[in-house]
């Protein structure tokens, strides 16, 4: 069986919609390489509509190793409203009910931690979460797994502290007890 990995950046107070100054100063070459390595090891992207729309604008006209990887890999967009996927090459719309089948065929990488990630965790479809935490408190904004109903427990598998104070946490959903 393949897997679904969710990767996101959050501040210390859990905000995922952060201003650039809460993220970019804390990035390191080592962290960028780890992000590229994860993208290279994944077969396809699995994205919610909003994340896909933001990433398409951010990456489609860029070049370099990360941009080249993201632009060339298949992208599955979970949406019930979009009908055109021409804004970013290799993109296809799928329904939420198709994700389990995609997971059987591909190692999927999902960016962001909004509604799609929350639902994937709730339904037991996420195998791991890579959380990059910056040492900043922004005070307001959408938070990681906003809208979750109930406890979401994770086990820390691996952690890495960067020289900038950022942390990279590899988490797996905890087994139900």
UniProtKB/TrEMBL annotation:
Q: Which GO terms describe its molecular function?
A: 5-amino-6-(5-phosphoribosylamino)uracil reductase activity
Matching entries from Gene3D superfamilies are given as:
Dihydrofolate Reductase, subunit A
Bacterial bifunctional deaminase-reductase C-terminal domain ranges (all copies): 4-166
- Which Pfam families does the annotation name? RibD_C
Q: Which GO terms describe its biological process?
A: riboflavin biosynthetic process
Taking the record's annotation, the residue ranges forming a coiled coil are none
InterPro entries (UniProt xref): DHFR-like_dom_sf, RibDG_C, Riboflavin_Biosynth_HTPR
Entries under PANTHER family matching the protein? 2,5-DIAMINO-6-RIBOSYLAMINO-4(3H)-PYRIMIDINONE 5'-PHOSPHATE REDUCTASE (PTHR38011:SF11), DIHYDROFOLATE REDUCTASE FAMILY PROTEIN (AFU_ORTHOLOGUE AFUA_8G06820) (PTHR38011)
Q: What is this protein called?
A: RibD domain-containing protein
What organism does the UniProt record list as the source? Motilibacter rhizosphaerae
**What broad taxonomic lineage does this protein's source fall under?**
Bacteria, Bacillati, Actinomycetota, Actinomycetes, Motilibacterales
